[in-house]
Amino acid sequence: MTSETDPEPHESDDWTPRPVVFPIVAIPRRLAVVVGRSLVGAAGVALIAALMRALLYRQPSPSDLGLLGNGGGVVGFTNVFGQPSSGFADRMALFTSSGANLAIAVLLIVALVVIAMTTDASEADGWLTAWQRFVLSTTGVIASVVVVANLVMCFEILDNAPGLLIADDASNKASSIVGLLAPIVLSAAVAVYAGARLRSSGLSDSEPESDDI
Amino acid sequence: MSEISVGERAWVRLCWFAYDARSRPAALLAAAAALAGGAMIGADIGRGGSFAFQGFDLSLLWIANAFGFPSQLCLAVAALLFVVDRVSGTDYRGQRLVFVALAVVGAIGVAANVTAVVVVLRNGVSSGLSGTVAEAYTGVIFEYLAPALLSAVVVWLGLAATRPGLIGPGAPR
User: Fold this and answer.
1) How far apart are CA A102 and CA A161, in angstroms?
2) DSSP-assigned letters across all residues of B69-107
3) Alpha helical stretches, state H, chain B
4) How far apart are CA A92 and CA A143, in angstroms?
5) CA distances from A169 to A90, A172, B15 (A)
6) Contacts of A110 in chain B (CB under 8 A)
7) Is B39 in contact with A210 (Cβ distance < 8 A)?
8) Cβ-proximal residues to A89 (8 Å cutoff; 6+ apart), any chain
């Protein structure tokens, strides 16, 4: 039974949220800027590429494969032998497997660690430079997209959504959903941290040194 | 340092882990990475379940695939972030248990992947539609050696963090 004054097993000094607990590591700030932006940029480009692939993908028809003759096949037969168009579940499966996947989540985590390591010990807790703000906000947005996309994919699998590209997933729902949980959990943690850090930064900007007044 | 407000105290009572995670971001991200690694291992075990009863060698490869590169990458990130959190100086209950668990899982990963390399070398691989047999051997061995090395990093970090004086407060600089 916990007392009224100390309800949880925490030290009394730990009550105030401190989003910057990463120890300060000596790393050149310019290098960190380049690395942080590169990591987030790579994640963003991969996400955009996956989005384009998911939107523009169409399954090859027999005429595309040359099965109906040269020059695109015989007119009139193309529609007969054409493949069904890819549905939402197919496109979502493409997006999550090629863009919103575990590799992107790991990239985002490394970017966050780089940001955290470059915090100057002399700066106030939560204070952020413009590039740190940019990287944090971009990271949060990308992480949120990854979470939402994988959650939607989970629902599609649970809903037995038809689709050629998720045929393997439908055969083993439990393991498919557990596998999708990996990028979801990682990206959710990234989004929570980025949000808390940005919020903390906003508070420290609007109420400077409020604790000591 | 401001005192915690009544509203915040109520929030802490409701969900103390989430509140604590705000003050320990490295631990939060590390826990997420560890969960992700566990999820990958569980998912791969579930996906390859049909291989489990098709012979001893296939079972060994099935286990090694479950402890493959993605899951071990997650565990390595988790171990690194847990160490970062430990270096920050504030211990918590169960910290030693976390590192021991990581070391155990890493050791299983090392054993599974090294065993898979032995199984592949003993049984041989086919070159497939393209490439030489030597290329196929090289590819398969590196497919299992890379996660084995990552697992070794996890084991080392886990063991080093549990031993006093190596990582954390009081460690030599």
Assistant:
1) 23
2) HHHHHHHHHHHHHHHHHHHTS---TTHHHHHHHHHHHHH
3) 6-14, 16-23, 25-47, 56-66, 69-87, 95-123, 133-162
4) 16
5) 11, 6, 34
6) 77
7) no
8) A156, A161, A162, A163, A165, A166
- Whether A212 has a pLDDT exceeding 50, the answer reads no
Q: Give which of B70, B26, B67 is closest to A109, Cα–Cα.
A: B26
Residue B103's pLDDT is 94
In chain A, the residue whose alpha carbon lies closest to the alpha carbon of B82 is: A22
Nearest residue in A to B24, CA atom = A21
Tally the C-alpha atoms within 13 A of residue A130's C-alpha that lie toward its C-beta. 0
Q: Which residues of chain B have pLDDT under 70?
A: 1-23, 49-53, 88-90, 125-131, 164-173
What does the block give as tokens for B148? 């084995």
Nearest residue to B68 via CA among B151, B10, B167: B151
Number of Cβ atoms within 10 Å of the Cβ of A2: 9
Asked if A141 has any chain B CB less than 8 Å from its own CB, the reply is: no
ipTM above 0.90, yes or no: no
Residue A60: is it exposed, middle or buried by C-beta count within 10 angstroms (0-12/13-18/19+)?
exposed
User: Is A7 touching B (CB cutoff 8 A)?
Assistant: yes
To the nearest whole angstrom, how far is the Cα of A76 from the nearest Cα of chain B? 36
Please indicate whether, in this complex, the C-beta atoms of B33 and A179 are within 8 angstroms of each other. no
Q: Taking the C-alpha atoms of B120, B77, A136 and A203 in order, what is their torsion angle to the nearest 10 degrees?
A: 160
Kindly tell me if the per-residue pLDDT of A200 is higher than 60: yes
pTM above 0.90, yes or no: no
Residues for chain B: how many in total?
Answer: 173
Q: Provide the residue type at A71 as one letter.
A: G
